[in-house]
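Renewal narrative, Specific Aim 1. Our central claim is that a sequence can be written position by position from structural information alone. The example that follows is taken directly from our test logs and has not been curated for this report. It begins with the structure tokens describing the chain, in the order in which they were read.
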């Protein structure tokens, strides 16, 4: 595709005093500070955010971010793909650069979620679900619990063992100074936390976070190339889907990304997957082909997803540990993977890795993305 990562930036995730515009600016400036001379003033600005209006009363993001970054005058686009907005905006920018419309593009994505009551956050997140299911009381946690229980029942897996996902990702986050959570947890703490929506407990569920990420794309050759883009959709009415033990949208996205990149699942050596709920990491690893159906829990338990394993999974802490400012989550995956492939991830570095995979979920698996990066 001839699309490369020229620089990356990020803000610290967690409860932040700054507003959304300030967080996006922080991440954008961080990326621009590391930009090569040829991309120091990008030709376009792409902004991702799920709900800037409902969550913080901010609309018309592109010119406001451009002003804050002293980039006023360049064209831009705002992308919303629910909790996959960060991935969606990366794909839009990469396609524009690959097509030759722009030689370089700055991608920023973020969300400010902690300034409103949790009940309001729950309501806003439910807007990405099926209106009919919401009318009957569906929320994001309750629908995640439905999918999780169907998966666990189908493969005869105990929820008490799924907590190893949280344990591993919180341990990784404790090494990440930009993560929402800075302390590890034990399996006993996970299994002893309160029920949110059975079978999901509090420590199976990602936090409400603020934060932003940025990626500067260019057609000029750098050390990391975007080699595969894939996205897929599925019925928003979960009850009408073919099955509940995985996400068709991820499988479609993975197939498209692998084909574009001329790579197979066996070549992936580091992955950032969408673990907004602990069982989703198991589902994601199977949907992208890293594990076979029902095999991911045992695969993780055997250490295969550790920083020293064959495929390092969520070495940044994932959504469960790093935090989940929904608009930023899909883009921070690209930041983290780029640094892993460059060998610049510091305390998070998981050895030498050549191919990275990012997988992001929008809504309840209704609009999902897979991105493949390669070390050049």
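The sequence written for that structure reads:
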């Amino acid at each position: 595709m001839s699309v490369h990562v020229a620089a990356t930036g990020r803000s610290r995730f967690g409860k932040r005093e700054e507003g959304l515009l300030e967080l996006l600016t922080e991440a954008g400036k961080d990326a621009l500070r590391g930009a090569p001379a040829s991309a120091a003033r990008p030709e376009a600005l792409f902004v991702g955010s799920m709900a800037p209006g409902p969550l913080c009363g901010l609309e018309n993001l592109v010119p406001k971010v451009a002003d804050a970054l002293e980039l006023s005058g360049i064209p831009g686009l705002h992308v919303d793909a629910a909790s996959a907005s960060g991935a969606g905006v990366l794909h839009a920018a990469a396609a524009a650069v690959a097509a030759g419309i722009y030689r370089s593009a700055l991608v920023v994505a973020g969300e400010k979620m902690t300034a409103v009551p949790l009940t309001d956050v729950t309501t806003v997140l439910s807007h990405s679900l099926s209106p009919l299911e919401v009318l009957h009381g569906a929320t994001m946690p309750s629908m995640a619990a439905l999918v999780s229980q169907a998966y666990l029942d189908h493969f005869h897996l105990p929820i008490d063992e799924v907590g190893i996902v949280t344990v591993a990702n919180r341990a990784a986050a404790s090494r990440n100074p930009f993560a929402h959570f800075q302390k590890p947890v034990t399996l006993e703490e996970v299994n002893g936390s309160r029920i949110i929506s059975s079978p999901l407990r509090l420590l199976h569920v990602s936090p409400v976070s603020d934060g932003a990420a940025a990626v500067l794309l260019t057609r000029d050759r750098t050390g990391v190339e975007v080699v595969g883009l894939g996205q897929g959709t599925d019925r928003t009415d979960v009850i009408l889907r073919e099955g509940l033990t995985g996400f068709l949208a991820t499988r479609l996205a993975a197939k498209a990304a692998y084909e574009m990149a001329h790579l197979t699942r066996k070549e992936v050596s580091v992955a950032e997957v969408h673990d907004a709920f602990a069982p989703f990491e198991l589902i994601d690893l199977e949907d992208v082909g890293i594990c076979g159906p029902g095999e991911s829990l045992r695969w993780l338990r055997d250490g295969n997803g550790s920083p020293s394993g064959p495929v390092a999974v969520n070495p940044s802490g994932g959504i469960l540990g790093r935090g989940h400012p929904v608009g930023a989550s899909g883009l921070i995956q690209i930041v983290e993977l780029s640094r892993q492939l460059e060998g610049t991830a510091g305390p998070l570095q998981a050895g030498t890795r050549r191919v990275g995979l990012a997988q992001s979920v929008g809504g309840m698996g209704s609009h999902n993305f897979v991105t493949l990066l390669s070390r050049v």
